[in-house]
């Protein structure tokens, strides 16, 4: 990992989805603040984990970074180039270098296309290989993800969930990218298959020098695969640190609650560990609380937490947090 060279830089990224009311004449009455002022860097060759509960904005962050959703505000730099200011033609040339592995292997593959066409589509879009060269490249990609090349004329419904996710990984690798967003690539798979997919992603990273943004719910798997971890809550990042530092010394109350829910293999450790139960439900991103987003559920919140936004600060070397009281 090259700690000095930044490949991806996200600055003050926002993505709001408008809320409309009315039947004949629709009027905008508010917005869902799915991603609200998010900033982080990803270094060449590293894996940055992005964790948080469902609905906190992890997937929206990933899709907005790749400009699959147009950002409401903020900037995304890839290799020094601002993606938010690129025209569609310029963006297409950069898309070859950035890919995404989607969460649901059952919904992300076209059921009417053969595997050969699905994996070969990026090659056609980016004018990379044609004819026999394209056929040989698809065979090579199937071999990379440990699938039989004889499968290429089959359709997605003929494969299991783990095999479909391998096909999705092969499709992402087809354009020879440098950066891949892995959007919960194992959450829809059986536990027995999850380790195989994670090991495959690690092998591919070592082989091709890939950089990952790994979005996940499984905190134990995130510690295994990621170099650094960012914790997201209600559209904003509340803590970020190296994986061992974050897991051994969590400082934000929300991170502490998340990690206390991770199952431990030793029953004695489980019994001796203090379980942190958060009160109430997460607020709506359409109407987030003032001040610190977490203050309605926080056990250490003070009066100023209700009015003042916490400053993003480095509380230990390379350990960043957004909290008044931690």
Name the descriptors:
globular; 27% strand; 8-stranded mixed β-sheet; 326 residues; Rossmann fold; alpha/beta; 30% helix; 4-stranded antiparallel β-sheet; 12 strands
Description:
- The model has no long low-confidence stretch (mean pLDDT 91).
- This protein has a domain of 226 residues: Rossmann fold, CATH 3.40.50.300.
- It contains ten helices and twelve strands.
- It is an alpha/beta fold and 326 residues long.
- The strands form two sheets. The chain has an eight-stranded mixed beta sheet, with helices on both faces. Strands 2-1-4-5 form a four-stranded antiparallel beta sheet.
- It starts with a strand and ends with a strand.
- A hairpin with a 5-residue loop joins strand 1 and strand 2.
Q: What helical percentage do the residues reach?
A: 25-40%
- Unreliable stretches covering 5 or more consecutive residues: none
Q: Which structural class best describes the helix and strand composition?
A: alpha/beta
Mean pLDDT: 91
Taking all Cα atoms into account, the compactness measure Rg is 21 Å
Q: Largest sheet, order of strands side by side? A: 6-7-8-3-9-10-12-11
User: How many helical elements?
Assistant: 10
Strand content: 25-35%
CATH superfamily of the domain at 2-13 and 34-247: P-loop containing nucleotide triphosphate hydrolases
**Number of beta strands:** 12
**Oligomeric state of the chains present here:** single chain
What top-tier CATH class of the domain at 2-13 and 34-247 fits best? Alpha Beta
Task: Examine the secondary-structure arrangement and name the CATH architecture of the domain at 2-13 and 34-247.
Answer: 3-Layer(aba) Sandwich
**H-E string:** EEEHEEHEHHHEHEHEEHHHEE
Query: Biggest sheet, open or closed, and with what strands and sense?
Result: 8 strands, mixed
What fold name stands as the CATH topology of the domain at 2-13 and 34-247?
Rossmann fold
- Principal-axis shape equals globular
How far from one another are the termini? 30 Å
């Amino acid at each position: 990992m090259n700690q000095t060279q930044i490949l991806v830089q996200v600055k003050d990224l926002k993505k709001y989805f408008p809320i409309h009311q009315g039947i004949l004449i629709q009027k905008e009455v508010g917005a869902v603040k799915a991603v609200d002022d998010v900033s982080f860097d990803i270094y060449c060759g590293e894996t940055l984990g992005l964790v948080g509960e469902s609905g906190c904005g992890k997937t929206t962050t990933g899709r907005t970074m790749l400009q699959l959703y147009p950002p409401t505000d903020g900037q995304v730099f890839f290799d020094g180039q601002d993606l938010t200011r690129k025209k569609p033609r310029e963006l297409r040339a950069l898309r070859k270098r950035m890919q995404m592995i989607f969460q649901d292997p059952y919904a992300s593959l076209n059921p009417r296309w053969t595997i050969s066409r699905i994996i070969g589509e990026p090659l056609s879009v980016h004018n990379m290989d044609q004819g026999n060269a394209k056929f040989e490249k698809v065979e090579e990609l199937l071999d990379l993800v440990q699938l039989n090349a004889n499968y290429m004329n089959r359709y997605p419904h003929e494969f299991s969930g783990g095999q479909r996710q391998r096909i999705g990984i092969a499709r992402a690798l087809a354009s020879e990218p440098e950066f891949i967003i892995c959007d919960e690539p194992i959450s829809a798979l059986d536990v027995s298959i999850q380790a195989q997919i994670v090991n495959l992603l690690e092998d591919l990273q070592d082989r091709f020098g890939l950089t990952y943004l790994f979005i996940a719910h499984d905190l134990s798997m995130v510690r295994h695969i990621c170099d650094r971890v960012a914790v997201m809550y209600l559209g904003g990042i509340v803590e970020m640190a190296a994986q061992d530092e974050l897991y051994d010394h969590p400082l934000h109350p929300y991170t502490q609650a998340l990690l206390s829910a991770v199952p431990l293999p030793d029953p004695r450790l489980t019994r001796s560990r203090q379980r942190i139960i958060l009160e109430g439900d997460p607020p709506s991103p359409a109407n987030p609380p003032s001040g610190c987003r977490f203050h309605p559920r926080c056990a250490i919140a003070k009066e100023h937490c209700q009015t003042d936004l916490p400053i993003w600060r480095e509380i230990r070397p390379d350990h960043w947090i957004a909290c008044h009281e931690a």
